[in-house]
């Protein structure tokens, strides 16, 4: 499905409300003035409210996108779209993204 390309300034949240920030966005390609996110670049999650053991698994610490654009690449790596799926570690919960730009779209 086509969707907006995510950038480093997009709002990306774990299911528990933690804010995910990219560790290494693509510095050469920008959309809306911000570096885009590409497959293989992990995200760090801060502020997750999932309870620690023994009542819960613990807070989300990091996340990785498991799907990306099929046809659009930046520096040889698929770009991350708004509807790309991501999984948090260690909880396995998904991320939800709200793009900061809507002009650049990918498939």
Strand and helix layout:
Layout: E1 3-4, E2 11-14, E3 19-22, E4 26-31, E5 34-36, E6 43-46, E7 62-65, E8 73-74, E9 77-78, E10 86-89, E11 95-98, E12 105-106
Antiparallel strand pairs: 1-12, 2-11, 3-6, 4-5, 6-7, 7-10, 8-9
Folded structure, characterized:
The protein is mainly beta and 107 residues long. It has a single domain, classed as Tumour Suppressor Smad4, CATH 2.60.200. Helix content is 0%, strand content 38%. The protein contains no helices and twelve strands. It is elongated, with a radius of gyration of 14 Å.
Q: What percent strand?
A: 35-45%
Shape: elongated
Whole-Å distance between the termini? 6 Å
**What is the CATH topology?**
Tumour Suppressor Smad4
Specify the helix fraction band: under 10%
Please report the total strand number as a whole number: 12
Outline the low-pLDDT stretches: none
- CATH level 1 name: Mainly Beta
Q: Tell me which CATH architecture applies here.
A: Sandwich
Mean pLDDT: 90
Count helical runs.
Answer: 0
Major β-sheet profile: 4 strands, antiparallel
- The largest beta-sheet arranges its strands as 3-6-7-10
Give the helices and strands as they follow along the chain. Answer: EEEEEEEEEEEE
Radius of gyration, CA atoms, in whole angstroms: 14 Å
Task: Give the class from helix and strand content and strand pairing.
Answer: mainly beta
Number of domains: 1
